[in-house]
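2024-03-11 09:14:02 INFO receiving multi-entity request
2024-03-11 09:14:02 INFO entity count = two
2024-03-11 09:14:03 INFO echoing inputs for audit
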Amino acid sequence: MSQLAFRTVSATSGNNARVLQGGDPHREGGNPLRGTAPKAAKPRTPLSLVVSVPRRNRTPLVVSLFLLVVAALSAVLVMSVSVSQGQYELVALKTQQSNLEKSNQALELDLTARVAPQSLVAKAAAMGMVPAATTGQIDVRTKKVTGNPQPASADTKGLVVIPPANMNAPQPAAAAAAGPGTSLQDAAAKDAAASRTDAPKAVVGAAPAAPAAAAPDLNGGTIPAPGQKHS
Amino acid sequence: MAKDSPNPTNGALAHRLNKVGRGRMRVGFVVMLAFLLVIAGKLVMIQGLDVGHLAEAAETQRTVVQKLPAVRGKILDANGKVLAESILRYDITVSQVNSSLYPEYKHVDTASQKTVTYTRAEGLQQLADVLKLPVDQVTKAATGDKTFNYIVKDVSPAVESQVAALGVPGIYSQAQTKRVYPAGSVGGNIVGFLGSDGTPLAGIELTMNDKLTGKDGSRTYQAGKNGIIIPTAPVRTVPAVDGQTVKLTMNQDIQYYAQQAAQEQKQKYSAQWATILVIEVKTGKVVAMADTDTVDPNDPGKTAAANRGARSVSAVVEPGSTDKIMTVSGVMDKGLMNPLTHIVVPPTYTVDGETFTDAFPHGTEQRTLAGIIGQSLNTGTVMAGEKMTPQERYDNMRKFGIGQLTGIPLPGESPGIFATPDKWDVRQQYTILFGQGVAQTPLQTAMVYQTIANNGVRLKPQLIDSFTAADGTVSTVPQAPGIKVISPQTAQQDRDMLESVATMGDAPDVKIPGYRVGGKTGTAEAPASNGGLSGYTSSFIGMAPMDNPEYVVAVTVQQPQGLIYGVTQGYTFNDVMGQVLRTYDVPPSSTPSVKLPQFYK
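2024-03-11 09:21:47 INFO inference complete, emitting structure
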């Protein structure tokens, strides 16, 4: 038995049954409870202390714990698998999205290049179209035609052609790009300085009346040069 | 322990041995406890108190912060056509070290699902074919002992995906953004361009840089030593906010037409430069601002530095006769004169010792005020304008915006040159009446006519229509309040006189069938840089339709060669204004033209 039991329960030997009060019931002389014997307690069934610890059934607990552990692990495994699966799907969809975006951008760029006025003019000229020399207006309510509409003639020349966008131009080197930037800033600074200072008054002689026919708005005289930019 | 234990040893020896055993057990127990305490203490210190900040250090080592770059906003024209946008491009790079590690490599052919072995030379040949480069160049770039080298830059995504599909070991691609301008030089002076490092250098790209630049985002995740993302670790994504889209008031088609017309004028007269401005009268919106030899923002280096800006706002010229309308407006607004006031104009007019003559010799003429504007007489203008004091003349022109910045969002705008009256000399106080001795930008002069067309209310020229944020919110730029310069009646009188310039005056070639038009010619002597005068600035500013003006077109040509009397901007005006009226479906005029008498009996 356990150490605790050993220390608290005193060792016995032999029979632990209590000694009955009121004599031996198996004595001769008839009923011992009647007569001269003193009134005694009701006799109880003799009890004997069983000195042994009841055996616990360990097997179901171990099994249930084991099953619990297995269940937890499998739950974690399932979650990981689904997360990883989701990641694969995510990567595939993201790749698809970026591919679509790239092709969308390429198509949009192609479209804007074709919509640019220069390419429209070039296509129209290639088809043999000419600009309209005259235009007219139709008032739909009164059905009146104003203006001076004439049929187009094949020899109408268009205005000067502006060159199309050069979108594949080589990127400028850092040094060259610094050049335009600084020269622009220089020009702006010069311009600001010139506008702030009052131009010196220049005294010019007699008004040039002779080239009157060629110079409509003559002023001659003491007009100070305002530092006009000849750019 | 029962006395009758199975231990054969009994008695005192057993008792002694038991005691020793118990002692050893106690000692072992104490030693174990001590170790346990040490381990538990260390555990508490590391896990609980974290004395060495090891958890933090480990997390820092695992954490990777990836930048999500923001896309720069687009610039659109009034109809939504793209003028500037950022596109995705790739640089094809090579790790020369890695490339030399694979003299042969396996490649799975996606079509047939077969594994083919290629040599390095074959791989490089395939790469050269895809990139359309000579194979020696590619091999040279890919051979060496550097870990990073460029094979080619700025490749389209389609080519990049072809390169990736080849699977040549050691070849990688790097994403870049590139700014393209699909319209090229159409509107290039307004849109501006970027430098090679992406900083804006001109135009709307520069002034609206804050709105166009977005805010980069970041993605913070944790990765293991081999770079694989730990899926259960927290991922924090701050999305990138793309730049706002700037929508301009400029109409790309009219801008193109105006640029063509300006270039044509420049070539025809071998001029230095020319500009054409188209302004919407009622709103002040700039429909077109055309320059000659405009920069193509895709390749700004190819254009001379002087041509990379917008001359309409930066070039300062003496306007000449177009300023005369301000003088008569000031006089009429004060009630001193009206278009039919009789003025006797001598051949030359002398005042304060200064003599003024006209462009053509004439005798004494009995002119109305309309006639003085109609034939652009300096003498008559001085006679009318001297009714104002110099301060009044100054204030009148300042109200029209002369000498002040218009506030248009373009860099390099000049306020012009307009001295205060105390600095005027005896001649200048009269020459400013006919636009000499004062310098203005073509935009300032155009806005004078916008004021007259808009019943005397001057508006701020507006170049930007709206901003669109990355989430789609559109914020329209509100129209700035106008400045009342002259009364509506004075403005009407001005318009009548301007119409008479075309119907009765010196601009008979200005006509658009179906519409009433009016305007003013201008021929100013251009000052030379050394103080004298050299060449001319020839201009014409007109408006249409005169019954209710909707658009102002200003044509300025600098230093046209040849006989100045032969230089006319009338046809250019007709072309451009006709195009504008047709594009916006402006109803033709239904009222008869105004023909104010130029002379009186």
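2024-03-11 09:21:48 INFO post-check: The two ends of chain B are 154 Å apart (CA to CA).
2024-03-11 09:21:48 INFO post-check: Chain B touches chain A through 111 residues (CB under 8 Å).
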